[in-house]
Design a protein that fits this description.
By secondary structure, the protein is an alpha/beta fold. The strands form four sheets. The chain has a five-stranded parallel β-sheet with strand order 2-3-4-1-5, with helices on both faces. Strands 8-9-10-12-14 form a five-stranded mixed β-sheet, with helices on both faces. The protein has 24 helices and 14 strands. The longest helix is centred in the last third of the chain and has 17 residues.
């Protein structure tokens, strides 16, 4: 079974087994595991699979034609534009050569075995962006205009921003034939613990912080190697995927990479306010705002807004942070230090520049893990409230890592302690003060600690069932 994707696999199988034809848009960032999921889905089924590369209209058609011939779904002598006029007349659609080409080619999937014909096209945006007729053909397949058999069509894309912000406008009325969107997200911390059973939970936490739960990055780590050796051998050595992945991912998504790199380097090193970015880079605030918007749309950066329920005099404005775990790691440790890495070599570089602060780096990810824990309990109906809203609070004298509310106005508050081995009563008192400053309730309190809790907190939890103590090892 594909780790961490059972729900998504079930959704695809439900579409396949349903009574009607379906069109699923499967999307998510590169290396998120779309191809692995597709491979698992079609492993016991007859399907036509095609990866659309960036190519001209004519070249795209030729590549698709070649793949169909290689899969024995199309005969070489059948592939001509002759005798297609009758098909165009039958469909009552505009006589456009590219429409006719795609209609003729994709009609051949009717030769697939099984009652449901499966068509998978990866990175379909590479076709749609250069040819608007392609989606009309897909719509004709789903509606039964090309041939009257059930189809299960899956179109994938690694361009999150395009799918969520531009795709529907680009395909027009053909979007009406889309039956479902399936977005692949990063794996959870629990999945990482299962992947690396030989590592300590603390090491798993650091691996999670570095990779961000991206499957394509996780496979670069070896459960048989220590955390230190994994980073030295699989991150810091030239020729490895992760060596240049921090910059490669930005180049893949954006132009003007030098400007984006500067902004990301600033954020990775704690400059997370607009004014701080303005002072460091010298770029105008409007210009920075545009770049940040592009980074947010591609889920590389996020802006975390503070929960507002009054108490504004104690509240800080929203802060920018790097959402992509490996992007943050790369810009913090490698981007500005490549010369030193080349000079010192991976071992000495790790010991001097990464090892001493690696645990600190994982701190932000611990908040994400605490949030995942709350959301998991909520999904299992094992939480005291049913969450309808979740946020964080940034205060001038402290932060609240998790705020969750329900329809009845009940609050669940979470605080994550990563900096110290022991979560102390003093830190708990600071949380209570922050709750008062934020003007929210403290109906239920969840405290998360990297290691343990002091005796006073254990007594409080023992006498008050609404105060929960969860250590990292409890995961």
């Amino acid at each position: 079974m594909l780790l961490g994707r059972s729900t998504e696999l079930s959704q695809l199988n439900d579409s396949y087994r349903g009574e009607n034809s379906t069109l699923t848009i499967l999307y998510g960032r590169s290396n998120i595991g779309k191809t692995s999921l597709i491979r698992e889905f079609i492993k016991d089924k007859d399907a036509f699979y095609y990866v659309a590369c960036q190519a001209s209209e004519e070249e795209q058609v030729e590549l698709l034609r070649k793949e169909l011939i290689d899969c024995n779904l199309l005969n070489k002598e059948d592939v001509t534009l002759e005798n297609l006029d009758s098909e165009k007349e039958k469909l009552k659609l505009p006589k456009k050569d590219m429409y006719s080409e795609y209609a003729h080619l994709l009609n051949s999937i009717s030769k697939l075995s099984g009652d449901t014909k499966i068509l998978v096209i990866e990175e379909f945006q590479n076709i749609v962006k250069s040819n608007k007729d392609f989606m009309s053909v897909i719509s004709a397949l789903v509606s039964g205009k090309l041939f009257n058999e059930k189809v299960c069509i899956i179109l994938t894309s690694s361009s999150i921003s395009w799918v969520e912000n531009s795709m529907v406008k680009s395909v027009g009325d053909n979007a009406n034939y889309i039956t479902s969107f399936l977005k692949l997200k990063e794996l959870s911390f629990v999945d990482i613990v299962r992947m690396f059973p030989k590592h300590t939970v603390l090491d798993d936490m650091v691996i999670y912080a570095i990779t961000g739960g991206v499957p394509g990055y996780l496979v670069e780590f070896n459960d048989k190697l220590s955390l230190r050796d994994n980073i030295i051998q699989n991150v810091l050595k030239k020729g490895k995927l992760l060596y240049n992945e921090g910059s490669s991912y930005i180049k893949e998504e954006l132009r003007e990479t030098s400007l984006y790199n500067t902004i990301l380097y600033c954020i990775a090193n704690g400059e997370n306010k607009l004014n701080e970015l303005h002072i460091h880079t010298g770029f105008g605030r409007d210009k920075i705002s545009v770049y940040l918007k592009n980074l947010i749309e591609r889920e590389i950066v996020e802006k975390v807004f503070s929960y507002e329920a009054g108490g504004k005099e104690h509240t800080r404005k929203g802060l920018y942070s790097i959402k992509s775990g490996y992007t943050k790691f790369w810009f913090k440790y490698i981007y500005a230090n490549e010369s030193r890495l080349g000079k010192l070599g991976p071992d000495e570089f790790y010991d001097r520049y990464i090892g001493p602060s690696l645990l600190d780096f994982a701190g932000d990810a611990f908040v994400k893990v605490g949030t995942e824990f709350i959301e998991l309990l909520d999904s299992m109906n094992r939480l005291e409230i049913k969450i309808n809203n979740r946020a964080r609070w940034w205060g001038k004298d402290g932060n609240i890592d998790i705020i969750a509310t329900d329809n009845a106005g009940k609050f669940l508050v979470g605080k994550c302690n990563w900096d110290d081995d022991v979560f102390t009563k003093e830190k708990y008192d600071e949380l209570i003060e922050n709750i008062s400053q934020a003007n929210i309730g403290d109906d239920y309190i969840y405290l998360f600690s990297r290691d343990s809790f002091d005796d006073e907190l254990n007594k409080i939890s023992a006498s008050n069932s609404n105060v929960k103590l969860i250590s990292l090892n409890d995961f």
